[in-house]
Amino acid sequence: MIERIYGVADTTFSRVNMGEIAIKVIRKEDPDSQISRYTVPGIKDLPVAAKKLIDSGCNGVITLGWVGKTQLDKYSYLAASIGLIFVQISTSRHVIDVTVHEDEAEDEETLREIAIDRAKKHSVNLVKLIKDGGNALTEMAGKGLRQGYSNAGSID
Amino acid sequence: MIERIYGVADTTFSRVNMGEIAIKVIRKEDPDSQISRYTVPGIKDLPVAAKKLIDSGCNGVITLGWVGKTQLDKYSYLAASIGLIFVQISTSRHVIDVTVHEDEAEDEETLREIAIDRAKKHSVNLVKLIKDGGNALTEMAGKGLRQGYSNAGSID
Amino acid sequence: MIERIYGVADTTFSRVNMGEIAIKVIRKEDPDSQISRYTVPGIKDLPVAAKKLIDSGCNGVITLGWVGKTQLDKYSYLAASIGLIFVQISTSRHVIDVTVHEDEAEDEETLREIAIDRAKKHSVNLVKLIKDGGNALTEMAGKGLRQGYSNAGSID
Amino acid sequence: MIERIYGVADTTFSRVNMGEIAIKVIRKEDPDSQISRYTVPGIKDLPVAAKKLIDSGCNGVITLGWVGKTQLDKYSYLAASIGLIFVQISTSRHVIDVTVHEDEAEDEETLREIAIDRAKKHSVNLVKLIKDGGNALTEMAGKGLRQGYSNAGSID
Amino acid sequence: MIERIYGVADTTFSRVNMGEIAIKVIRKEDPDSQISRYTVPGIKDLPVAAKKLIDSGCNGVITLGWVGKTQLDKYSYLAASIGLIFVQISTSRHVIDVTVHEDEAEDEETLREIAIDRAKKHSVNLVKLIKDGGNALTEMAGKGLRQGYSNAGSID
């Protein structure tokens, strides 16, 4: 049996411990796996964390970022997103990017629920892609799935 | 006869199964071809999907993305677009990018029609470029062609 | 005599056949040259077209893009511009970028004139740089030259 | 005992000598280390400074940038951020990015306090990551830590 | 004595001959140096000009760009800035970027003064970095230096 290694990169900036949630879900979805965690200060540090996790042998990585409310935070989100995409295309490895924006909800409870739901669903997505490859999610293609919110659904 | 391999990368975020449409069109336009499909959660995962399809031998790829309405979705679109362009220039392979923006139309029916038309027309474009090379579309250069909408036309 | 090869990359999205204009000008300015043309659907496909033209031996390339009016079109312009710059710096070859924005003029006739003027002037620029090198334009440095509009002029 | 080398890159544009602060903190946190400093004019010069520090053997780098108030300054911030992320992912080394925006506070005293607090806290973060690796900050993951401001705190 | 080679890249779009100013200052500041000049149409051509100057042996480069007033010009500025940063981090060479924005001043005389001051001061910065290395500017770190305007000063 091939044992898979997953990377989990999270931040101290985040207000929810999404890294812990991701680890629990991955462990449940793929018991024959190892998990490496890497914690950095903020989202702009996530690309190098993902890169170092892949360098160390991870087959795929999930990053768990939290973004503030200002326009500058959004530029940081853009820069980090570009970086995470480049880590992926230069290594041909998935880095599933969970991001929660502080202005997605007006109260902290809703924000917490978004973070938990998004971290859980994308952890499952990562395991499916790493374990079963590029057709693992095809059954759900075009179905309007959402993470952090209820599904939008298909309009086919 | 040289057999071509096409890659089709789509998402579970999309509300229309554009991957299926692309496969049908490619099969019709180029019966002597193989098609590989790769489904990912969202647009920011499309660049690595395209890269992995090219790694596996695809001569060209079509990606089928769906983008939400918020400014953050637009930044994600920008990051994904930059990534898709880099996959292309680092591999010298075409990755034709079909993107539908949820705010392109006010009702779902119109949105669905845009998605179908765009996916179909760009699938034909991809096959033409891969089968017949850089002059395959030259007859239509400057003609104001549109995908998802009716053509704007030439003003020559 | 060294024969130069120029690449001309244009789109079917464009409403003016700028590729044809560029070819005419290059042929007149540098009769001892070959020209390769590559036509793609839209601006986001231009970076890979330029890359493939350089791969095939072109000493320099001119790309002729047309951009729509929406904010999304502008993000596509930004992504394409970054891609075109990376093609250049990774190959050390010039890719002169002619872009016409649909909202540069209120009527089609003016837009057509902008497109023609810009394509012509930049075709001359490309030939000068490829034939005569980095000092070919130095006499005009700081002169406030414009393409598509009348020159702004020097304020020295 | 392995001796670590830290890089400190700062600017003449900055209105607070954050480089000096970073050096003091690093020296205190990791007495068995060497520190190299590199001063450049502004934020857009920081990526190459970080790259040169890593080329010269630094195990990790902290950059200390200051950004003006205009939209153009913000685009420069975005370009610099993308560059800093690419230095990291192409070298697999951390470059912790301290940035102070001139419009973060209305008076100079507050701005100075933000700069000092951010430089100090991120210097500690850098040392922890370089000395103790990717789990050094895990105890604080999801705790809503802030640099330059008081912590937002966890909402778990 | 080691002879240094400086690159000067400027544009025909610029309304002030900043390349000439840079050459004069560099010659005065570092008489034992050679200077190569490369003139291109506009800012988006500057990254490849800088790359070609470095390819030809320049130890450092100054680019002198001029940017129009529209939002599109600003996106071009952003793309060019990202490109200039990548030239630097992929070659580990400084490319000091002088940019003048047409909307920085209301009258041409002020604009001209900004351009001259910025070109002069950054030419001196380049020479210092190339001749004396990463500590050449450290004495001025955090001093709030400005180019094109009077210094903001330290708030330490």
From TrEMBL, chains A, B, C, D, E:
EC number, UniProt record: 2.5.1.9
Keywords: Riboflavin biosynthesis, Transferase
Catalyzed reaction equations: 2 6,7-dimethyl-8-(1-D-ribityl)lumazine + H(+) = 5-amino-6-(D-ribitylamino)uracil + riboflavin
Annotated metabolic or biological route of this protein: Cofactor biosynthesis; riboflavin biosynthesis; riboflavin from 2-hydroxy-3-oxobutyl phosphate and 5-amino-6-(D-ribitylamino)uracil: step 2/2
One GO term describing the cellular component: riboflavin synthase complex
GO biological process terms, semicolon-separated: riboflavin biosynthetic process
Organism encoding this protein: Metallosphaera cuprina (strain Ar-4)
Primary enzyme class: transferase
InterPro entries given in the database record: LS/RS, LS/RS_sf, Ribfl_synth_arc
A GO MF term: riboflavin synthase activity
Protein name, entry field: Riboflavin synthase
UniProt similarity note: Belongs to the DMRL synthase family.
